[in-house]
Amino acid sequence: MASMLTSKWTKAGVFLASLGPLGYLVWKGFRAELTANPIEYITHELGDWTLIFLILTLCVTPARRLLRQPALIRFRRMLGLFAFFYACLHFSIFFVFDHFFDVAAMLDDVAERKYITVGFLGFVLLIPLAVTSTAGWIRRLGGRRWQRLHQAIYITAIAGVVHFFWLVKSDITRPTRYAVAVGLLLAYRVVMWFAERQMRPQPARSAGKLSPTGGS
Amino acid sequence: MLIKKSSPFEIPYSEVTPQSEYLSRRKFLTGTAAAGAGLAAGGAFAFLLGTEAQAQGGRTKLTGVTKSSYSTEEKISSYRDVTTYNNFYEFGTGKDEPEQNARNFKTTPWTVVVEGEAAKPGTYDLDRIMKLAPLEERVYRHRCVEAWSIVVPWIGYPLSALIKLAEPTAKAKYVAFESYYDPKQMPIARRAGLPFPYVEGLRMDEAMHPLALLSVGMFGEILPPQNGAPFRLVVPWKYGFKSIKSIVRIRFQEKEPPTTWNLAASNEYGFYSNVNPNVNHPRWSQATERRLGELFKRDTLPFNGYASQVARLYAGMDLRKFY
Q1: Model pTM greater than 0.80?
Q2: Is B192 close to A171, i.e. CB distance below 8 A?
Q3: Does B10 touch chain A if contact means CB atoms closer than 8 Å?
Q4: In this predicted structure, what is the pLDDT of residue B296?
Q5: How does pLDDT run across B50-78, given as a tens digit for each residue?
Q6: Half-sphere exposure of B182 (CA within 13 A, CB side)
C-alpha cells in the first residue's frame, strides 16, 4: 500500500482521473448530450466538481491519520489545485456566457445576488492558495504561516455549500449532501484541535515542573 | 468517497416503475390498437368541430386545428428541448426528471371540477374539455422565472371559453386553479420542498384575456405528460410557473387565491409574476434570458413581448410592488 502510494504512476493516475469530469463533459458535448440548456448544465456540473474536489482535498488529512497513510499528503496539493481548476472553469462560463466579458455587469451580479456573492468570495479566496501552493512559497512564508493561510479552504468549502443552498429554489437534497460532507470534515478538525489541546502539557505551573527546559 | 454525485440513476430502485409495468414495444402497439378500437366504439376521442385525435407511434395527433393570428413568427424551439427540459416538480426537480418520471402518468379518466362563484358549476370530463371550443395553434414565447425561454406551438382555445360556460357571478373576482396530485404516481414529489397540490390563480380580467390559453396539446399532438397533460394553462405574459399544469379544479372566488411559489417564498414570487425585465428576482436578473438553443443571452421584453396586448390590465398599478 505504502509503496503504491509513493509510486509516481499513482500520482499520474490521480491526475488523469481528475481530468475525467472535464473529459466527460467534452465527450457529452460532442454527442450533443448537454441537455436543452448546455450552458447551465456545464456550469452546474463544474460547480459540482469544484465542491467534490474541495471535499477530496479536505479528506486528505483525516485519511492520512485514520488510515495511517501519511504518504497520502502527496495528493493534497494536486487535489486542491483541481478544485481551483474546476472553480476557474465554473466562473469562466458564468463570466463569458452569462455576461459576455462585461466586468461591470458581472460585478453587479456578484453584488446583487447573495448566492453569487458568497460563491465569488469562495472562488477569490482560492486564488492566493493556488498561487502559494509551491514549495518555494511554503519556504518563503514559513510552515506555520503557510498553514494558517491555507486554512482559508475551510471558508471556501463553507462558501461553496452556502452558494449551492442559496441557488436552489426548493429542493435542498443535493446541497444537503455536500453540507453533511463538509460538516463532518470540519467537525473532525474541531475535534482534533480540542484533543490535541488536551494532550499538550498545560503551559501553566505544572507544565514548568514537567519540562525544565521550558518552551523556546 | 463521502459524496455521491447525483445522477439520473439516483432514485432508489423501489421508486422505479416495476419492469412489468413498462410497456414493451409489442404490448404498446397492441395497446394502441386497443385504444383505436375503443376510439371507434365509444367515440371517446371523437371530437366535435372536426377535431380528432389519432394515435400514432405513441404520440397522439390532433387534427382540425386552425392557425391563430396571436402566434409569433419567432423560431419554434426544438421538440426535444421542450419535452426534456421541464419544471414539473411533482415529477422531480431536475429539468430532465419529469420526462423520465412522468412516462406512465395516467391521464384517463380525467375530470375537472368547476366550482365557486358561478351560476353553472359542474364537473367536466376530458372529452368535454377537448371539444369545448375550436382548437387553435398558437405559437407563444414562454419565459421561465429562471431566465430561460422557449417558443412553443401550443394547441388549445381561450380560457374564456370555459369561463363563459360556467357563468361566473359578480362576486367572482379571481380564478383559482389546482393541479392533480397523487403521491403514488408522483413519489418523488415529497423531495421537491413545495406544498402540493400545486395551486395558481389569475385575476378575472387576466383569465378572460384572449391570450390566456387553455392548452390541450403542442407540436400538433396532445400534451406529453411532462408538459402538463392532459390540459394546462398558458399565460404567455407571465413567468412559466403561473401556467399551471394538469388541472383538476377551477374555482371562482372573491378573494385572491394562494399560489404555490408565493407560499414557498413570498419575497421571490408574487401573485402577478408578470415578465418584467426591470424587477429582478433575488436570484436571477430578469433583464436577460437564455433562449434554449442559443448560446448567449438576449434581452427580456416587458410582459414577455405582449405589452401592447396586456399592459392595460395593469394600468395604474405599481408593478414593483405587485410583482
Answers
A1: no
A2: yes
A3: no
A4: 87
A5: 444 555 456 889 999 999 999 999 999 99
A6: 12
